[in-house]
Amino acid sequence: MSASTRERLGIWLLIVAASLAAFSPALENEFVGWDDGFYILTNPGIRSLRGENFAWMLNSTRGGLWQPLAWLSLAVDYAMFGFEPSGYHLTNILLHAGAALLLFAVGLELFGRGGFRRHEDAAIAAALCALFFAVHPLRVESVAWATERKGLLSGFFCAAAVLAHLRSARAGRRRAAWEAGGLAAFALSLSAKAAGLTLPLALLVLEVHPLGRLPADPRRWREPACRRVLVPIAAYLALAAAAASLNLVTAINEDVIRDSLPLGAAWRLGKILYGLCFYPAKTLWPGGLSPLYPPRAWFGSWSWELFGFAALISSAAALLLWRRRRFPAALAAFACYGALILPMLGFVQQGHLYAAGDRFSKAKPMQGMLLFGAAFAGAGRAARGAALVWLAALGVASWRQCAVWRDSITFWSSTYAREPGEVSLSALAGVLVEDGRREGLPLLERAIALYPKFSSNYENLGIALQSSGDEAGARAVWRRGLALAPNPLLEARLGASLANESGWRFVQGTLLMRAALSQGPVVAAWRTDLADAYVRAGHYDDAEREYAVAVALVPTLGRAWNNWGLSLARRGRNEDAALRYRAALCDVGTRAQAHHNWGNLLLGVGRLAEAERHYREALRIDPGLAQASVNLGNILARRGLYRLAAQRYQAALRREPGLAEARANLAAVSRFLRR
Predict the structure, then answer these.
(1) Which residue among 384, 402, 420 closes a domain?
(2) Residue 668 belongs to domain with CATH number
(3) Containing domain of residue 628, as a range?
(4) Is the separation of the CB atoms in 629 and 619 below 8 Å?
(5) Vertex 187 angle, CA 183 and 189, to 5°
(6) Going by C-beta distance under 8 Å and a sequence separation of 6 or more, which residues neighbour residue 320?
(7) Residue 143 contacts residue 152 (beta carbons within 8 Å)
(8) Within this chain, do residues 175 and 241 fall inside the same structural domain, yes or no?
(9) Is 325 a domain residue?
(10) What percent of the chain has pLDDT over 70?
C-alpha cells in the first residue's frame, strides 16, 4: 500500500469516526411527533418489500412529494428494524458519513485544480472541508430526524453527481461513463427529494471555474467546443424539469401548495433575502438552532430589515464581481450557493409557513466547507490547530443538539422555548395531551387565546376532549372555532361527531359534513365519513351513493371500498361485498382489514377453506388483528386441530387481553386437549 493510499484511508476513517462521534446520541432518540408518525409509524406503504408496495412507492403522493427512493429506504429499514428507532437513526448517520466521504472526494477534485502547489495541501484542504461538513450542527436536523431520510439521500446522491461530473472532465475515453453515472446519481437524488433541482446551474458555474471548459461570457457558449460541454448539462436540466413537474402535480393533488395565501411581494421578498443570509450566518455561528423558524415579524412589510438584507447581499455580490479576477473561487462559491439554495427560498410555498430550516442546508454545504478548507489548508500549524479546535467545538455542539430530538415532548418543548409561535405551542400542547399529561389542555386553551385564527388548536383541543369522553366539550370547542371563520376541517369533525346520533343531530351533522365537502380539499375521505354515518343510521342507499363518489374521486381509497363492502354485507349482498373487498386490496393501508372482512363473509356461508386463506393473509400483513386470529382459531377447532386453535386464541389474547370470545374458546379447546 502506497503512502498516499494510506494517507487517504486514514482520512476516510477520520471522517467516518467524526460523523459517528458527533451524532451517536441520536441512536438513543425515539421517533418524534413531527411527521415521523405519518412517514413511518402509520405508513402501511413501507411495511413490505413486495411488488405492490414498490408500485405504491412509485405512484404515491403521500406527503405531497414524489419520493420513491425515500419510501424504499424506509421500507428496507422497516424490514430490518421494525419500529425500533435506533435502526433508522443508524442508517441516517451512515448516510451522512457517506456523504461526507463523497464531499472529501469532491474537495480533492476541486482543490487539485485550485492552485495548491503540493498534493498534501490539497488533501488537507479537502479533509478539512469534509470534516467541517461532517460535524457541523446544521446537519443535526437531517441526521437526528428519521423523517428527513429523503434529504440525506438527496444530498448523498447530489454529491455523487457532482463528483462524477468533475471526474468526467479529466476522464478521457471514460468521460461518457462518468457522465452517465452522474446523471444516474442525479436521478436518484431527485427520486428521494427534489432539493437538488437547481444542481445543473451549479454545474454550469463549476464549468466556468475551476474546470474552465466554459468562458465566463455566456454569449460565447454557442461555440462548438462549448456545446460539447453543455450537452450533458442539458440532460441534467431535462431530469430536473421532469422531477419539478412530477412534484408540482403531486403537491397540487395533495393540496400542500399554499400559494393561495395572500402573502404579497414584500413577504416573499423578505423571506428570500432572509434565507439567503440565514444559512451562511448559521454556518459561521450555529447558535440558537431550532427545528422550526416561524416567519419573522417584519415579513410582509417594506421594513429596514428587508432593505438591510438586500443591501448586504447586493454589496457581497458587487464586491465579489469587482474582485473576480483575483478571487474567482469565492465568486464561484457564491454563485453555486445562490443556485443551490433557490428551491428552498419559498418561491412556491408548501405546508406551514416558515422563515428557514436547518435541513435545507444539507445539499448546499459546498461553498462554506470549501472556504473553510481553503482558509486553513495552506496556513501554518498554529492555524491548522485552531481549525481542529473549531471542528471539535462544532462536534460538541452537534452532540448536544442531538438531545433536542430525544422524544416528542423534549423536541417541542425546546422548539417552543427557542422559537415560540403558533405551530410550536399547538404541537407541544398536542403531544402533552397525547402523553396523558393534563397540562396540555390549558396550553391548548392558551394557544387559542394567543392565536385564535389557528384552526388546528380548536381541532386538537376538541380531539383531546373527545378522546377523554367529553363529546359535548369537544363539540363546543369546534363550534368556537367555526364561530370565528368557516373551516371545512372543523365542520367535518363536528359533523362526524353529531352524525353518530339520531334525530335532528344526525341531520345537523350530515349538513355540516356536506358543507365541508363543498369547500374542503380531502373530499374523498370526508365523503367516506359521510357514507359511514349514513350506514350507522341505516340509510344504505344514501351511503352507497357517497361511497361511489368517494371511490370515483380516489379509486385507491381502500377505506371507502372496505366500508362499502361491509355495508353491502349487512344487506345480504355478499357477491357485491366481495367485489368491494377485492377492490380494497389495492390500498396497502386497508389490505389486512379487507382480507379479514372477506374471510368473515366466506365464514358466514360455510366456505371455511377460502375463509382460512383470507384470515391467514390478514394476519401475515397485520399480526395485531386479534379478531382474525380468533376466527382462524374457530376454523381450526372445527377441523379438530385444537392445539393450533389454542395457539391462535392465545395470540389474540396477547393482543387484546379482554377479548371474551378468545378466552371462552381457549377454555373450550383446552378441555379437549386435556382428554
Answers:
(1) 402
(2) 1.25.40.10
(3) 588-675
(4) yes
(5) 115
(6) 327, 330, 331, 334
(7) yes
(8) yes
(9) no
(10) 91
End-to-end C-alpha distance for the chain, whole angstroms: 74
Same domain flag for 672 and 637: yes
Q: Tell me the per-residue pLDDT of 183-239, one tens digit each, with 9 for 90 and over.
A: 999 999 999 998 888 888 888 888 887 777 888 888 888 888 888 888 888 999 999
Question: Which of 156, 34, 661, 13 lies closest to 404 in space, CA to CA?
Answer: 34
Lowest-confidence range among 227-236, 436-445, 636-645? 436-445
Q: By C-alpha distance, which of 675, 613, 600, 616 is closest to 640? A: 675
Question: Is the CB of residue 248 less than 8 Å from the CB of residue 242?
Answer: no
| CA–CA dist 409, 433 (Å, integer) | 10
Structure-block grid coordinates of residue 438: 393534563
SS3 string, 419-451, reads CCCHHHHHHHHHHHHHCCCCCHHHHHHHHHHHC
> For 274-304, what is each residue's pLDDT tens digit?
888 888 888 888 888 888 888 888 887 888 8
Give dist(CA 125, CA 109) in Å, integer. Answer: 11
* Residues 556 and 671 both lie in one domain: no
The total of structural domains in the chain comes to 3
Per-residue pLDDT, averaged over 484-502, amounts to 83
CA atoms lying within 13 Å on the CB side of residue 41: 12
Does residue 543 belong to any structural domain of this protein?
yes
For the cut 80, the answer to whether the pLDDT of residue 350 exceeds it is: no
- The per-residue pLDDT for 135 is 94
Kindly state whether residues 615 and 641 are assigned to the same domain.
Answer: yes
Domain boundary among 532, 557, 585: 585
Helix or strand run (H / E) with residue 659: none
Give domain status of residue 240, yes or no.
yes
Is residue 521 located within the same domain as residue 603? no
Cell of 541: 342507499
Same domain, 541 and 668: no
* Cis before 210 (ω within 30): yes
Q: What are phi and psi of 621, to 5 degrees?
A: -75, -45
Whether residue 333 is contained in a domain is answered as no
Q: Which three cell numbers stand for residue 200?
A: 445543473
Half-sphere exposure of 267 (CA within 13 A, CB side): 15
Mean pLDDT over 28-37 rounds to 89
Residue 293, beta-bridge partner list: 356
- 79-124 pLDDT per residue, tens: 999 888 999 999 999 999 999 999 999 888 887 765 555 667 778 8
Which residue matches cell numbers 345480504?
572
In this structure, are residues 408 and 33 in contact, taking their beta carbons and an 8 Å threshold? yes
Instruction: State whether the Cα torsion 560-566-568-574 is positive or negative.
Output: positive
